[in-house]
Design brief:
451 residues, alpha/beta, Rossmann fold, 3 domains, globular, binds 5'-deoxyadenosine, binds iron/sulfur cluster
Length: 451
């Protein structure tokens, strides 16, 4: 019987992609994926340390494996990889003694041999490497959905925003060779992939380390011509998003009119303390240019509440930017001090009750904007890529618009939701909610009847 494994993923899209590569590596090593921890010979946690909450969740989940491990006749190999592995290394073994393997962000490809060493040596193995400089792109991957692929174009970050741990755990920016990215997208298109998401902590500076100047717009233009139907990318930094990138988005129907552009704060004082290198005026001018070029753009952002020293006036500036930028979606975070970052040592941490009150007000403002934007789509036709049955209701199909909004439609009678998964259809939008739209299929896609 094949050995079994389970991968649990925390955090960002880059981690989701890393998890697909871990899955690919372990399948290539002859192992079989399972969905329950109790059935897994090996459990791999792909971790995130951007905020404390993910740290705590990981520790809870790892601790809960202790009894499973003790009960299983063959035991269980517990592995921690990714950002927390990179940051804490051997310290994890002291805190969680039943962990068997720890690896970091630069040596994912070594996992099969680390598992082997742990087995042969019969004790825990820790391997953390500094950034290698090379971009390990030729690893097997096992895509979660056959029609979607994550394509990393660069990893790491040189920005050192004062609150952020990422540059310490992912290292400096390293771009992938231009032709390699394009060739991978061509292969994916041949393989039937409909949608790719180009990934990087700061995609707009793609190529700077390799070619002396950013080549992201050029890369977008090239990827748009590979035959992939829908191209997404994340994340963009407001100081680096160029007019040529905006032009590339506007110029190719294959590039989704959806942009994730984290603003973090609307206060110039706080933006400076965050080391973001732009002002709220710069941000809003950029947003104006984006909407002027693409009136139908769906804009999303990240916002941190309660950064050290944030006053009520600073927070009011953030609410002002939310209303002016008309975000379709905003990921809102309570500031979480991360040891080793500049902000962790700053005075004037904001009291918890004040932060929570601001957080609630921010969420309300964001929801207002989101509903406003969604209401504008009622009566329009949206091209939707279906993902399958809705998680809540098997008689409802779920999918995403070009703007990355969730759309629900009633599953046509005598049809199977799986027939629609990974297919496009044009949907007439009838109703808007805060985080989703509903409608009906206008142009059916001619799926085969099941059975
Ligand atoms: N506290 C809260 N939010 C943070 N983020 C990054 N670091 C922190 C932190 N220390 C948020 C930022 C970033 C997103 C991925 O996570 O908004 O854009
Ligand atoms: Fe972190 Fe700033 Fe880099 Fe984003 S740009 S990964 S927030 S340091």
């Amino acid at each position: 019987m094949n050995e079994t494994f389970l991968v649990r993923t925390f955090g960002c899209q880059m981690n989701k992609h890393d998890s697909e590569r871990v899955t690919g590596l372990l399948c290539a090593a002859g192992m079989r994926p399972v969905t329950e921890a109790s059935e897994a010979d090996v459990v791999v946690f792909m971790t995130c340390c951007v905020r404390e909450h993910a740290d705590e969740r990981l520790r809870g989940q790892v601790a809960s494996l202790k009894s499973i491990k003790a009960k299983r006749p063959g035991g269980q190999t517990v592995v921690i990889g990714g950002c927390i592995g990179q940051r804490d290394g051997a310290l994890l073994l002291k805190q969680l003694p039943h962990v068997d393997v720890v690896f970091g962000t630069h040596n994912l490809s070594h996992l099969p041999s680390l598992l082997e060493s742990a087995r042969i040596e019969r004790h825990s193995v820790v391997e953390i490497l500094d950034a290698t400089g090379e971009f390990t792109s030729d690893l097997p991957g096992e895509r979660e959905h056959s029609w979607h692929a994550w394509v990393p174009v660069m990893v790491g970050c040189d920005n050192f925003c004062s609150y952020c741990i990422v540059p310490y755990v992912r290292g400096r920016e390293r771009s992938r060779v231009f032709e390699e990215v394009v060739a991978e997208c061509e292969r994916l298109a041949d393989d039937g992939v409909l949608e790719v998401t180009l990934l990087g902590q700061n995609v707009n500076s793609y190529g700077r380390d390799l070619y002396g100047e950013p080549r992201f717009a050029e890369l977008l233009n090239a990827v748009a011509r590979t035959g992939i139907a829908r191209v997404r990318f994340a994340t963009s930094h407001p100081k680096d998003l160029s007019d040529s990138t905006i032009a590339a988005m506007a110029g190719h129907p294959q590039i989704a009119r959806a942009l994730h552009l984290p603003v973090q704060s609307g206060s110039d004082r706080i933006l400076k303390a965050m080391n973001r290198d732009y002002t709220s005026t710069h941000y809003l001018k950029l947003v104006d240019r984006l909407y002027a070029t693409m009136p139908d753009l769906a804009l999303s952002t990240d916002i941190i509440v309660g950064f050290p020293g944030e006053s009520e006036d600073d927070f009011a500036d953030t609410l002002g930017v939310v209303n002016k930028a008309r975000f379709d979606q905003a990921f809102t975070f309570i500031y979480s001090p991360r040891q080793g970052t500049a902000a962790a040592d700053m005075d004037a941490q904001v009291p918890e009750d004040v932060v929570h009150d601001r957080f609630d007000r921010l969420v309300a403002a964001v929801q207002n904007c989101a509903l406003d934007k969604n209401r504008k789509l009622v009566g329009t036709v949206q091209r939707v890529l279906f993902t399958g049955a809705s998680k809540r209701d098997a008689s409802v199909l779920a999918g995403r618009t070009e703007g990355n909004k969730v759309v629900h439609v009633r599953l046509p009678e005598d049809r199977d939701a799986d027939d629609y998964a990974g297919r496009f259809a044009d949907v007439a939008i009838e109703e808007a909610r805060i985080w989703s739209l509903t409608g009906y299929i206008l142009q059916d896609i001619g799926v085969k009847r099941s059975g």
